[in-house]
Each structure stands twice: as C-alpha cells, then as structure tokens.
Write a structure and sequence with these properties.
Blueprint lengths: L2 H10 L1 H4 L4 E6 L4 E6 L8 H18 L9 E4 L2 E4 L6 E7 L7 E9 L4 E4 L18 E4 L13 E10 L13 E5 L26 E6 L17 E6 L3 H7 L12
Antiparallel strand pairs: 1-2, 3-4, 5-6, 5-8, 6-7, 7-10, 8-9, 9-10, 11-12
C-alpha cells in the first residue's frame, strides 16, 4: 500500500477505525496524547501493520501542529533536496583514536522502527587502525549533514548491538544485510521517521526507477575519493537478477565504496 493511499484511507475510514481496539501513544515532549488503531484487521504482515501505525502517528503529529513546515530548500546535484525529505536516513559513526576524539561516519542506514535500523553487513565492521573499535558506536539521525548544523540539530543514539545475516562472510557481498539495534528508542519527529519495508515481490520492481540516498563518493576517483558531507540522492533502475549478474560479473566480490 502506498503512503498516499494509506493517508487517504485514514481520512475516509475514521468511523470504521474508531470501532477497533486502540493503543494510546504519548508524545512527552509536547504533552500530546493520541490513540493508534489496531491495524491487524487490514493487513497480516507485521511490517505492513507497523508501517500503517507510523504513518498514522505522522498524520496525527501534523494535525496537532507538531510538524512545522520548513520552506528551506537546498540544491543537490541539480535536484532540490528538501529539509526532512528522507527522515529515515541515519549515518553510522565510529569514534576515532584522535586527541581530542572525533566521529568518523563511514556508512549509512535506514531507520525501520523506533529501535532498529537496516544496513549492509559490510558496514557493521570496519577494521581501521584509527578507529576505537571495528563496529560502529552510534547512529546520527535527524539531519542531512554529517557535521552539526545550526539549521538541523541531529540526534546521536548509541548502538547496543549489530545483527548480521549469519550467512554473510566478508569480503563477499552475498547476504550483505544487517540490523542495528539502538540502546534506546527514538522519538519520531518531522526529521526522524522510519521507512516502510516493501512487501512486494522483487520482480514487480524490475525496470522501475527508485531513489537511492546516502553520503557516498562525489568524484568517482577511487585513488582520491571525496565523500559527501551532505545527504544526497539519485534515481536508479532495478535490473533483473540475471542481467545484473552479467553486467557486474567483473566486479563481483570486490569491496564497494560509499554508503
């Protein structure tokens, strides 16, 4: 179900929704309370149910004036990147051995709940001498910028543990997926909002265009790579698996760059 369809159905079916069991949600910072319906009668998958809950909560925040519109726009690679356009994006940070210590952001991740992010398994262990540990220490949420900005205040949350696919073996890219569990639950806002996990079959996306986001390389020069300090996005096509294997055959099992 698309986000637009969901928000429309929420507006059209208020009477029906009011009859089903609800869960009370409190936003302590703003002292606002509202109830989230039990969407189990509409969908079967947990991911779909949580998606509907997150969107419902977002709509309620907007109705209560908790998501203030921001007209600040920035041009990125010829496209307009709006403030809070990708609120699910987080940057994985490692503390360095420098004095004073600093944060090194080496990978991106997508927030999928109030305590978990989805990322690549190869992003959960980086063996560099200048880092305190191989696994990331924290996640930065709520900002397009890796450095702190006076315009967007980030939220840094410490990582409790990382859960890699048990079949993943570095440096191979098979089963390259992992979960990042935070030490505390995050509060959803205009700038911090989980992404909905797709429940469609992969073949339904073939030849369609999707948006990829991250803080990857901006110059394409592997010998002198320049990483973006601002969140960027681009559109890419989905290829059939066989076509993808053929086109990327010479690059298989090599380390990737960027996030």
């Amino acid at each position: 179900m698309a986000i637009e369809d969901l928000t429309t159905s929420l507006n059209d079916d208020q009477a029906e929704i009011s009859d089903i069991s609800k869960t009370t949600v409190a936003i302590e910072q703003q002292n606002i309370n509202f109830e989230i319906p039990d969407f189990s009668k509409y969908v079967k998958r947990v991911s779909e149910k949580k998606c509907m809950e997150y969107v419902y909560e977002m709509v309620k925040r907007q109705e209560n004036g908790l998501s203030i519109r921001d007209s600040n726009l920035t041009i990125r690679n010829g496209k307009i990147a709006k403030v809070a356009e990708y609120p699910h994006m987080g940057a994985l940070g490692w503390w360095t051995n420098d004095i004073p210590r600093r944060l090194s952001f080496c990978c991106g991740a997508s927030l999928i709940s109030d305590q978990y992010l989805l990322t690549a398994a190869h992003c959960t262990s980086i063996p560099r001498d200048n880092l305190v540990q191989h696994e990331p220490n924290l996640v930065r949420l709520g900002s397009r910028y890796l450095e702190k900005s006076p315009y967007e205040l980030p939220t840094d949350v410490e990582i409790n543990t990382v859960i890699r696919n048990p079949n993943y073996t570095s440096p191979y890219k098979d089963f390259d997926i992992a979960l990042v569990q935070l030490t505390t639950k995050v509060q959803f806002t205009k700038f911090v909002q989980p992404a909905c996990l797709s429940t469609f079959h992969s073949y339904e996306y073939i030849k369609k265009r999707i948006t990829a986001t991250g803080w990857g390389s901006v110059n394409g020069d592997k010998s002198n790579m320049v990483m973006s300090r601002e969140l960027r996005y681009t559109e890419i096509h989905i290829f059939d698996t066989d076509d993808c294997d053929f086109l990327l055959d010479e690059y298989q099992y090599r380390y990737w760059h960027g996030m």
